[in-house]
Structure formats: C-alpha cells, structure tokens
Records
---
Amino acid sequence: MRTLRKALSVLGLLAILALLGGCYSMGVNIWERDILAKPEMQFDHEATDRAIDDHIYFSKEASSGGRGFGGGGCGCN
Amino acid sequence: MQLNRETSVRGTLVALTATLLGHSGAGAAEPTHADASLLIYSESQRVTAGEAMFRFRRQLSDPYSLSLSLQVDGLTGASPNGATPSRQPQTFTRPSGNHPFTVDARETPLDPGFRDVRYALDADLTRTLNRMTSLTLGGRASVESDYSSFGFSSGITRDFNRKNTTIGISGSVARDVSRPLGGSHEPFSSTRVVPEDGVPDRLGYQEDDDEGGEAGHEPKNVYDLVLGVSQTIDRETLIRLNYSLDHASGYLTDPYKILTVVQNESSPDPGEPFDYVYEGRPGSRTKHAVYAELLRHIGGSVLDLSFRHFWDDWGVNSQTADVFWQWPVGHGTTLQPHVRWYRQSQADFYRPFLEEGAPSPRYASADTRLAQFDALTYGLRYAVPVFNGSYLSVTGEYYYQKGDSSPPQAFGSLREYDLFPDLKALMVRIGFSRDF
C-alpha cells in the first residue's frame, strides 16, 4: 500500500512537471489583467479568515498543511 | 462583486501599476492593508472558543514590506478525556490533581474544566530583490499557560513567463514546549494514586500540582517546507499547486487524554472500566500534503475550488474539498456560500479503549481526532462595503463530524454506548478589512 502511494506520488509529481511545461506557454499579457487584478482573484484574499478556519480545523482534525505551513504553534492538538 | 465602469478602470490601473512596480497582485499595490476577524466557535454542550486575529501589511520604503499578525484565542468548556462510558457514574480528577468531576452513567466522559488563552504574534519582512524575485523572512511566537512556540521562517518567490507563473519555496523551524498542568506522565501508567496509607485514591493523578509549578518540560521541534507554483491560465482563471512537508519530533502526546482499560470478555462485567491509563504517541511524525486550488471568474462571480490530499507516518490519510462561490448582489455587496467536505482514516495506534490482561501496545490514544470520521461544513458569508476601501463581512457556518459510534472491536457493555458522539458546532465570524 505504501509502495503504491509512493508510486502515485512520483507519478503525481511527474504529472505536475508535465503540466508546468505546458503552462509555460499559457498566460496573459499585461493589458489583459483587469479581472486578475480584482482582490477576490488573489489566492491570499481572505487570508485572515482562512487562517482562523485552519486553526479550528487543526484543533479538531488530524490533518494540517497544504495551503501553508502545517505544524505546531498551538497546544490544541 | 458587480463591476461598474469606475471599478473596472481602477482595477486595470491597479494591475498596470502593480506590474510596473514589479508586484504580481493587485492587493500588493495598496500601500497599507489591515484586516481583522473575530470568530466564535461553539460546540453543543462542549467547548466554546473565541478567536480574534488582526493583520496589518504595509509597504515600507522600497524595496521592503512588512506584515504583522496578532492572534488571541480563548477556550472554555468540556472536552472528551478519552475514557469510555460506563453503567456506573465515573469520577475523574483533572490533570492538575484537583477539581474532581463526576460523569453520569452511560455518558461520554467530558472534562468540564478546559480553559486557556493563547496569544500569537507573527511578523514577516519581504524584500523585493528584483522585478521577478522577492525574499521573505519571518518570526513567530505563541504563548499559552501550558504551551509555547517560537519559530522563524524564510521563503523566496520568483515570477516567470511574463509573471504568469510564480514558483515559491518556503521553510520554517519552530521549537514548541509543552508544560502540562500536573506534569507529564509515563505512557500507560495508571491514573490511580496509591498513597502511603495504602488506600487507593480513586483516580488521583501522580503529580498533584495545580499551578503547574512542577509541570514537565516537554519540547518538540517542528520543521516545515512548502513548495508551490501558481499559474495564470487565461484572463479569468488561476491555479496553484502546493506540496507541504512537516516533520515534528519530541513530545507529541496529549497530556490530558487517557484511555479506559476495560474488563475483558471473560470477566463478570465485560466492557466496564477496570483502570484508566495515560495515552502514549510516537515521538515523531512526518506529514505530507498536496494541495490544488482553482480560482475562476464566471460572469462577475468568483469560484474558488480546492482539494487537499494528506498523509502521514501515523497512518492517517485524509481528503479535503472546499468550494467557495462569491456572488455579487449589488452595490458592492457579495454573498459567498461555502461547502467543505473532509474525510480521514484513523491513526494506526488509535484505540477507543484497552483491554484488561492484553499486552500493552507500544502506542495508543483514544483521542477521537485520530479516529476515522467524516466532516462537513456549510456556510454563508455576506460582505458589504462600509466606506471607501473597507469591507465588513459576517459569516455563519455549521460544522458536523461523524465517526463510528460502535466500532467492531467493542464488546460487552461497550456495545451499548456511543463511542464516537457526533460533534456539531456553530461558527460565527465577523471580519473587517481596509486598504489605506
């Protein structure tokens, strides 16, 4: 099972690298960024709300991380 | 948000300014941004928590910017101590050794005395190295009555491909110290005390220390690494992929959780408590997470989809899916429904109880946070502009956790009890943000 998981992880990373290769030709020009410039189109929009939510879930579940650092800092779990 | 012509033109100008200044996002173009959020979290008949967070970001003299975050959270109420229900009322003593509490027959033992306040401060300084690269250095500290954490972090991001691709790497190191009230205990040692007169003090604790003066000093080191890439797909679509690695070593046991050792099947009262022992967890844990997020602008609304796959060397696997959809409802106000789905497998050493006479396992915990369960969150956020450059938001969410109430290993009287009571919580959050 763990071997399968490792194999899937490696395949996933390769897929991501392939995707990145494809992404290199993607994108927009500077003058096409009107919508992308909106605050709600930023990944860290609502960062404070997300941080507070993540802290609640960190204290109630066994998982953490992904969006950012996942460890420590609180005795709640 | 309903875009009027003025907003649209402003957005374009912000984007152009940000690009010319060497910043990839619109938010970064604002010299100062502040936001605050207050959350009330309330479980039915259990814990109530309040969290307040204030964040401040300011562009200092070029090329530096500063980000500060202050968080205060408080907790009070009852929390499961890990013991199983019984046909008889059960009396427990708090880990401090004082303030015994009695749990009714057939009820899940909840320790009613949880009360703590935590203060946390984060500071990050970012230096723009050139038009495409920025470097961040940060420090963080958090303190509560029985736990403290100090750490620092560093990260670098670089833009490529006309700023359509951003790659980042960041790491952090933290030193946490747990100082359990009443001291830390040998795993699987009985919670019962046998005083000098030879009469067992029912469920007393070995180190009676209400103020924590003789409390243990149990450190752990935590190392984090995050690799991330974000990509502009088209004028209305962004994606990002993150991989995070977290390794902790040291004291990872919860000093306030116990396990019931139940009478075995050949005893006259199988499944009823025989003894109570402290839990024990491994001294290290390595966690991995792969996270993908899509932001898509759809006719004025913004759809935010994310998925996380998590696994660790404790045997926990989990999947998390989040959907936020922000809808404009006129005059700058927005509604944002949110659904979160979460599923986790149990840790290898999760045991709802131990059995009398069975060999003691190397590690065991009855903490239901390490059990298999599903969780759902439903929520709705309403945001309204209150004056120029500022927004007020109100969010209501409902969190529901459901596990296996009657695990297959239950026997005797344990089959009569709910060994994983549903957890239901309401969350109300009020947020305020302002650009200066």
---
Amino acid sequence: MNQSPVEILLVEDNPSDRKLTLHSLQRNKVTNRIHTVQDGVEALDFLFRRGAYAQREEGAPKVVLLDLKLPKVSGLEVLRQLKADPSTASIPVVVLTSSREDSDIEASYKLGVNSYIVKPVDFDKFSESVRQLGLYWLLLNQAPTPY
Amino acid sequence: MRKRKTIGGGRSEVEKLRARLAEAEETLRAIRSGEVDAIAVDGPAGQQFFTLQGADQPYRILAERMSEGAASLSAEGTILFCNQRLEEMLGRSSGELLGSPVLSFAAGSEQKTLHDLLARAADGEARGEVQFRRKDGALIPVLASLKIIPLESRNGLCLVATDLSERKRAEETIRFQATEHATLISTTSDGYWAFDAQGVLLDVNDAYCQMSGYRRDELLRMRISDLQAKETAVEIEQHIQRVVGRGFDRFDSQHRKKDGGPFDVEISVSHVPGTGRFLLFVRDISRRKAAEAEVLRLNQELENRVQQRTAQLQTSIRELESFSYSVSHDLRAPLRAINGFARMLIEDYGPSLPPEAQEHLQLIHGNAIHLGELIDDLLAFARLGRRDINGQAVNPNEIIAQAIEDLGPELDHKKVHIRVAELPPVEADPQLIRQVFVNLIGNAVKYSSLREHPKIEIGSTTLGKLRQEVGEREQTAIPADLLDPSTVVYFVRDNGAGFDMRYANKLFGVFQRLHRQDEFEGTGVGLATVQRIIHKHGGRVWAFAEVEKGATFYFTVAASAARERQQSAAATASAPAACRLSQ
C-alpha cells in the first residue's frame, strides 16, 4: 500500500448529498484526506492547480468522486478535460450521480470513466456503494504513482 | 409428203407470176381437199416445214388455257366456238352457248351496249365494259375485246372476255378503305397530319385544328418547324431521316398553339415507304402531364409535411427526454436526503428517541424508498415508449433462465417450485422480452408467496388449443381480435392469491393495483410495462384468475410486426438497455 495519505476529491454541489457521502465514507472508515469542491469550475481549478488552487501543493488526488449535474461546468465536461490532459488522464474517476439516464452512462464511459455509481435513494444501499468504492479504489486497486 | 411443189427459175416475169398463182391455187386446193398436211416456207434459214396439224394445236390449247373467256362469233353475233373459261364465266355449258346469240347473255340494259360494240367491231375492232348475266342470275362485269376475223367465206368476230369482278371488288375495297380512313381521321380525338420529307404539311384533321387553334388552310401552308416548340429545324430534319430509317417513331414533344402557348403532345409518326409521305398522330397529353406534375407536387408536399411532423415529434421527444432527465436527477436527490437523514437519525440517536418517534422515522425512511421506486419504475416505463424494438430470433427458455436469475434474492428456490416447459422460439427484442418474463414471474412469485407450496408454471400453447381447452368464462378473457388458431400463446401461471376478474380491466394500467400495499407491495407499473412491451411487439396480453385460486397471464408476439419494427429500428441508432424494474 502507498504510504502517503490517499486524497479524495469530492465534486458535489448538493449539500445534503455532500454530507451523506462524507458521512458514509467516515462510517466506512475511509479516513483519507477528502477535499470537497462545489462546481465544475472549482473542480478543474483544483485538478489543474489554477485560480484559487494555484498555490496548492503538488500531487494529484488518488480518486475523483464526480457528480454529473453541476453548476457552471458539467461533470461530463470536467471528466472530458481531465481525461484529455496527460497529466490528469490516469486519475481514476468515479461518477457518482442521481442520474439513471442511459445517455449519461454511455457518455461517461465514452469519456473514460472508471466506475459509475447511481446514488440509490435507500441510504443503506448508498452507504454500501460508498463502502465498496472505498475498498475497490483505495485499498484493493492501487492507484498509479503520482508524478 | 406425197408431193413437193417448188418454183422453178427465170423465163419471163409473166410466166413466173402465172406459175406462182397456179401453184398457190393448187396448194389451197390441196389443203382444202386434205391432200396436203404440211407446207414448206423459204426463209433466211432455208426451207421450213409446218404441218397444219402442228399449226392448229397450240392455238387451240392457248384458247382453252387462257384466263380470259374467248369465243368466235358469226357476223350476226352467234357463238360458233367458245372456250371453257367463258363457259365458267357465264355459268353455262358449251351446249347452251354454241349456236346462241351472244346478245342473249348480256344483262337486260346491257344488250344495247353489247350490240353497239358488235357493230363497232364490224369495222375492225372494239373494246368496252359489258355486264353479262349468269345462268344463276348473278351479274358479271366483263371487259369485252372484239376483233374482226375472216371466217370461211365471210367475216366473223373474235371475242375475248376479261372477268372484271375481282378488279371491281378490289376497287370497291379500296373505296371502302378510303372512306374508313377518312372517317377515322375525322372522328379521332387525336390530331392527324400527313407531311412530306421536307416537313411540309399535306393534310390535317379537325382535331388538330382544334388542338392548335389554327384553321385548316393556315396549317396547310405551314411546316413542322412552325408548330414544333421543342425541336429546331435541323433537329426536325434529322428526326425525319431517323423515321425514314426505322419506319416508325413514338415520342413526347411539345407543339405551339396559334396563341403562342405550348402544349404537351405524344407523337406517333410513320413513313409510308415509296411515297415520301409521313403519317403522324398527335395526342394532347397536357392533362396527363399536368396530372403527373400534380402527383409530384403532392408527393413533395407530403414529404415536406412528414419532415415537418418528424421534426416536431423529435422536438417533443427531446423535451420529454430532458424532462425525464430532470425528474430522474432532481426528484431523487431530495428523496435521498430525506431517507438518508432519517436513517442517520435512527442510527445515531435511535436509542435515545421515544418509540413513537422511532416509528415515525422508520415511516419516513420507508416512504422515501417507495417513492424512489415509483420514480424509477415510472422513468423506465417512459423510457420504454421511445425505445426501438431490436427484433431477433430468441430462445424463450434461455431468456426465462436469465429472468429467474434476475429475480435472484426474491426467489426462495427451496420453497417455490417453478416448472418451465420447452418453448418455441419467438422473434422479439431479447432484453424487452426478458423484462416481460421478469415482471410476470416476479408477480407470480409475489402473489403465491403466502402459499405453503407456491407453484409457477411457464409454458406455451396455440390459440386454437387454448380456445378448445378453457371454460366459457375464460373464453371471454381472450382478445376477440386474435383470430389465427396457429398463433403461439405463452403463459405464466401461479397458484397464488389471484384476483377478481371484475377488476381485470384495471390490471394493466399504470399505478393500478388490485391488492393493498400491506398485502403485497408494489408500484403498479410492472404489468403496465409488460403490456407496453407486448404491444410494441404487435402482440396481445391478457389474464385469467380467480380469487385465491391463482392467476394465469397469457401473451402473444406478432412475429411479422416485430420484424417490421426491427426494420424501422435498424434505421435508427441502437437503443440503450432497459433498466430492471422492481416488482
């Protein structure tokens, strides 16, 4: 396992969903450093170290949890830019959204998403999904070494 | 040859002539008396001998064989000799003819004509048409040639009679044909021209005058190039040459009326060989052309309208899609929050809350989950409406195995006994037909769950057999418009709670339920989904049940309809997968 603390970037505009996700992560003992941003622009600024994040210390997050329906720049656009840039293309992205629309699922996979979770209404199922996420992406599946 | 008379040489001229005269008299006498049967004639090729018998015979044969009637007449017109042809012509035997006056055979009023002819012939020869009357009374037109001939001591007449009946008939036919031709030309609604190789009009009919607005006398001073609206003078000339080569041509063209307006015509032209004349028919096809143009215009209009409607339809589909998207996204998020925070309250503070508060929180939690399911099912149902059918040959047994697997946790295999018969293949969209089986089997499992030994039977039959086997009440449940007895009917049968057939009409409605939520849970979308899928496949679905005696759901899939839809679906992009509905 990688020794450095695993950093998670959570891109979520809905405060309830943000709180629920964080709560589920904590309940599932995912104690990695989590950074939360609230829209697509902020997410891109963080990932590409610009704007308010120009001074952030180097290093990519180990995983991005990305909501699709975001203010300003959509989740799909964030995904596209992230996968188009060689410096960020290898960061695993898990799309985490309410949308069950097939077009979103298709578009996400075309843009190279690593996993796609439809947030269930049932909190227990949601919690279970988050738990599996934690296990899968942060523990079992080692992320590539950061540059 | 008993004697040989020759003329000797010189002496005096008188003596010579006298001797020749005596010799000729002697020869005539000898011929008449029959002492001589041949004569010798001096000629450039030396002496030639002619027997009299030999001289007579060919003429007799000639007279008998000639196609004209022939006779020799006395000066008074009595028939002395006639050939067989004349006998045939007059329809009388030689016995009737020989010795009779020829005048007696001329038709009443024609006797004078013949009499005059005979009189004229007495001066040498005469020719003229005369009608004879046959024995059977029929008149026969004859061209009579009479010529004076010496006969014994006095002159007689030779008659050669040519039968004119054939020629008269031919002339009649030609006259009749000419009349027919003229009638045809003047009464046809097609225009008619005759023209020569220079394109000069020689004749036109009234129909063309009306068509073109020109008078006949105007047209007869015109050439083709004055009337043609499409071809140039050079092209017309070339066209005429082509017609000469081929003999005939038919083509569409355009002529110009007197008022200058063009009109569409169909031309049929033929060259009359050896005359340098051309016959041409002109059919006014402006109405046909106008109708064709109208059909084209209507088609175009229809096409435009279809495009317009399609665009409108696509717009409303897009609107519906974005609506579904919003519903999917925006309705679920707050629900998730309601449910999530209720759950967190229960988990984190449950023990310290009074029991009533805990129960209320549980109700909030449960209702939020149910509402989530309703939204999911409704969205999936709506998605079905705009999904295309991807029809292909499907093995229902494989599909059912997958469907049972899909049901997974809901199915207690130890308790529920599912029997699946060997089913005939079906042409359908595999994912959708699987959804049908998932929903129907899921229902069967749910509604038989209170039985001690739940039994589910999946099978097929034909419409014919089904109608024979079922009772009168069930007959009425079968859709009346299903006719072909060979139609395959699939069914899913359970021994569960069943339902009252009085409410059967509500079975397939969205959100319609025949059981209370506390009896059997459900959203009321499952059977509506089944019906929608089956209808999309051109099939029918119905049910028969009795309260507490189980239910059977039947459905058909119209293969041809499925194939049609497959073709229409092939034109559009393949559709994404349907989501599974909870029961």
